[in-house]
From TrEMBL:
InterPro entries reported in the protein's UniProt record: UDP-glycosyltransf_plant, UDP_glucos_trans
A Pfam entry, by short name: UDPGT
Keywords of the record: Transferase
Protein name per its UniProtKB record: Glycosyltransferase
Organism of provenance: Eruca vesicaria subsp. sativa (Garden rocket)
Top-rank taxon, per record: Eukaryota
SUPFAM superfamilies: UDP-Glycosyltransferase/glycogen phosphorylase
Family statement: Belongs to the UDP-glycosyltransferase family.
Matching Gene3D superfamilies: Glycogen Phosphorylase B (3.40.50.2000)
GO molecular function: UDP-glycosyltransferase activity
C-alpha cells in the first residue's frame, strides 16, 4: 500500500514512553501519514512543543478514571512514586471504553500500544492492525519478558552471559518485584497477540537480543532504530546553562541526570553531592529534590554550596539534556541508563558513567559496560548504597587522561558512535519500518 495510513498511538502513561512514541509519530507525519495520539489530558500541554506536524498529529485527550489508591490528580508516572504505578495501570485499563469510542469514530488503520495489551482484542473487533511498539531495550524484553524467564533470571536460550543481574542488584529487583507480575502479563500478552512487534532499537547494538525475541515469539520483529528527535528543530539551550558551561574548558564538565522518575533518599542525595565535591571537576547535577524535601537547597549537605561555588551546580528541575550533552564543555555524562538517556549518551561525545536504579536500567548498563564496553558502572554495595568514593572513582577512571581503562572505553565508544552516525543508518531503519507497515496494510 503506497497510500497514506492513519495510526492511533496509545503508550503507557509515562513521559519515558509517551515522548519516544511522539518522536515516532513525527517521523510518520513527516511522510504524510496521520496520527491520533491518545494521552492523559494534563500531559498534552507538556508535549505540544514536541509535535512538529500538528496538521498530521492530533492529540486525543483521555480522562483518567478514579481508582482507589491513585491520588486524584495523578495522570502519569511522574505524578506518583513507583509503588503506586499499579493503580495508574488499573486506571489505564479503565480507559478502554474511551479508546474504543475513538476507534469506532475515527476508524484508524493501525493502533500502536505497549502496556495496554487489550488493544489487540479491540483491534480485531474493528479489523485494524495492532502494533506492539516497545520503547524499552530489546535486551530487557529478551531477559525479562519472554515466556520461561522469572524475576531476575533469564529464560532458556537467552543470548548473553554478561547482560545479567548480580548480587548487588537486589535493590533494583526489589523495586521491579512491585510491578513485575502485572507488567509481565501485559507485555507478554501484547507481544503474543499483536499483529506486528516492533522495537525502538537497531541491530548494531542489540541484534542478537532482537533475533532471540523473534525466535521466542515466533514472528518477525520490525526495528525502528532509536528515532531520535532533531535537536535543531527544538528550542536552543537556556541562557543560564550556556553561560555556566561556557565558563569551562572543552570536555571538562561532568553532567549528572537520572531521567524523569528517580527520586533519591536524602542521605544518598547528600552522598552524591559529596562525591562531586570529592571529584574536584566542574559539574552540573540535575535531579529531583530527594524524598522528604521540597527543594534541593534544603537538602544539600552543610556548607556544600560555599565549598563548590563557581565550580558546580545542583539543580532541582528539568534541563534540556540532549542540548547540555552537545555543549562542548561537557565531557562526561553520569546517568541511570534509562533507554532514552542510553541513546543520547551514545550519540554524544561524552564519556559515560552509569548508575542504574530500576530493572531495565541495570540490564542496559550491563549491555553498555560489559557487552559493548563503552562505559563504566559505579560500584554499589549489597544494600544498593553507592559511596562518594565509588562515584568519584568511576568518573575519574574515564576522565583521567592517563587512565588505561578510560582510553579503552573512549576508543570503543568512538568506534560505535561512528557506526551509529554513518549517513542514512537511522533514516533507513525508519523508512524500512514504514514500508513494512504499508505492505502489511495491503
Ligand atoms: O532533566 C531532564 C531529565 C530528562 N530529560 C529527558 O527525558 C528523557 C528521559 O528518558 P530516559 O532516559 O529513558 O529516562 P526515564 O524517563 O527516567 O525512563 C523511564 O523510561 C525508560 C524508557 O524510555 C526506561 O528505560 C526507564 O527505566 C524508565 O525510568 C530523555 O530523553 C532525557 O533527555 C531531560 O531532557 N531533562
Amino acid at each position: 500500500m503506497g497510500s497514506k495510513f492513519h495510526a492511533f498511538m496509545f503508550p503507557w502513561f509515562a513521559f519515558g514512553h509517551i515522548t519516544p512514541y511522539l518522536h515516532l509519530a513525527n517521523k510518520l507525519a513527516e511522510k504524510g501519514h496521520r496520527v491520533t495520539f491518545l494521552l492523559p489530558k494534563k500531559a498534552q500541554k507538556h508535549l505540544e512543543h514536541l509535535n512538529h506536524f500538528p496538521q498530521n498529529i492530533a492529540f486525543h485527550p483521555l480522562t483518567i478514571p478514579h481508582v482507589n489508591g491513585l491520588p486524584p490528580s495523578a495522570e502519569t508516572t511522574s505524578d506518583i512514586p513507583i509503588s503506586l504505578d499499579k493503580f495508574l495501570s488499573e486506571a489505564m485499563d479503565l480507559t478502554r471504553g474511551q479508546v474504543e469510542a475513538a476507534v469506532q469514530t475515527l476508524r484508524p488503520n493501525l493502533i500502536f500500544f505497549d502496556f495496554a495489551h487489550w488493544v489487540t482484542e479491540l483491534a480485531k473487533d474493528y479489523m485494524i492492525k495492532s502494533v506492539c511498539y516497545i520503547i524499552l531495550s530489546a535486551t530487557t524484553i529478551a531477559h525479562t519478558l519472554v515466556p520461561g524467564g522469572e524475576l531476575g533470571l533469564p529464560p532458556p536460550g537467552y543470548p548473553s552471559t554478561k547482560v545479567m543481574y548480580r548480587d548487588n542488584d537486589a535493590h533494583a529487583l526489589a523495586t521491579l518485584s512491585i510491578y513485575y507480575k502485572r507488567v509481565y502479563h501485559q507485555i507478554t500478552t501484547g507481544l503474543k497477540s499483536c499483529d506486528i512487534i516492533s522495537i525502538r532499537t537497531c541491530k548494531e547494538i542489540e541484534g542478537k537480543f532482537c533475533d532471540y525475541i523473534a525466535s521466542q515469539y515466533n514472528r518477525k520483529v520490525l526495528l525502528t532504530g532509536p528515532v531520535l528527535p532533531e535537536l535543531e528543530k527544538g528550542e536552543p539551550l537556556e541562557e543560564q546553562w550556556i553561560h555556566f558551561l561556557n565558563g569551562f574548558g572543552p570536555g571538562s564538565v561532568v553532567f549528572f541526570a537520572l531521567g524523569s522518575q528517580i527520586i533519591l533518599e536524602k542521605d544518598q542525595f547528600q552522598e552524591l553531592c559529596l562525591g562531586f565535591e570529592l571529584l574536584g571537576l566542574p559539574f552540573l547535577v540535575a535531579v529531583k529534590p530527594p524524598k522528604g524535601a521540597s527543594t534541593i537547597q534544603e537538602a544539600l549537605p552543610e556548607g556544600f554550596e560555599e565549598r563548590v561555588k563557581g565550580r558546580g551546580v545542583v539543580w532541582g528541575g528539568w534541563v534540556q539534556q540532549p542540548l547540555v550533552l552537545s555543549h562542548p564543555s561537557v565531557g562526561c555524562f553520569v546517568n541511570h541508563c534509562g533507554f532514552g538517556s542510553m541513546w543520547e549518551s551514545l550519540m554524544s561525545d561524552c564519556q559515560i558513567v552509569l548508575i542504574p536504579f530500576l530493572g531495565d536500567q541495570v540490564l542496559n548498563t550491563r549491555l553498555m559496560t560489559e557487552e559493548l564496553k563503552v562505559s563504566v558502572e559505579v560500584v554499589r554495595e549489597k544494600t544498593g548504597w553507592f559511596s562518594k568514593e565509588s562515584l568519584s572513582d568511576a568518573v575519574r577512571s574515564v576522565m583521567d587522561k592517563d587512565s588505561k581503562h578510560g582510553k579503552l572505553v573512549r576508543r570503543n565508544k568512538a568506534k560505535l558512535k561512528d557506526i551509529l552516525v554513518s549517513p542514512g543508518l537511522f533514516t533507513s531503519y525508519e523508512d524500512k519500518f514504514v514500508e513494512a507497515l504499508q505492505e502489511y496494510l495491503v
